[in-house]
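Exam revision sheet. Question 4 asks you to relate a sequence to its structure. Input first:
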Amino acid sequence: MSETAAAGRVVLERVLPHTPEKVWRALTEGALLERWMWPNDFVPTAGRSFTFRAPPQPPHWDGVVRGEVLEVERLQRLAYSWESSGIATVVVWTLRPAEGGVQVRMEQSGFSEAQEMNRRGAEFGWSRMIEGLAGVLQEIEP
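Answer key, structure tokens:
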């Protein structure tokens, strides 16, 4: 997995040995998202609001992420807003064919310079979640 730490964003890339269809399902179906991320009411429809509910991490985080689906290009691109603890960012998933599977790129952008600690926490969290995504992909049918 390659990781890029650039000002104000987290970028993670990984080639997964699965079809774009299978990866897309894991990124967009609420029941599958729950298996590698958190309980949610996510539906991949532009303009639709959603909530992820993670275990709270008192005193700094209530475990709630609110967002809105911004863009859906089936099997290619998914973008949504991500608001947590008063910090508003945007998450973009991009899928591209790659030798042996599909290249998955996740970018979360919009962290201010003052939110560097939050950006680092997001980088750690996304790294763990992408490992969970890879595990779920091993378990689900194509």
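Marking note for examiners. The chain is about 30% helix and 40% strand.
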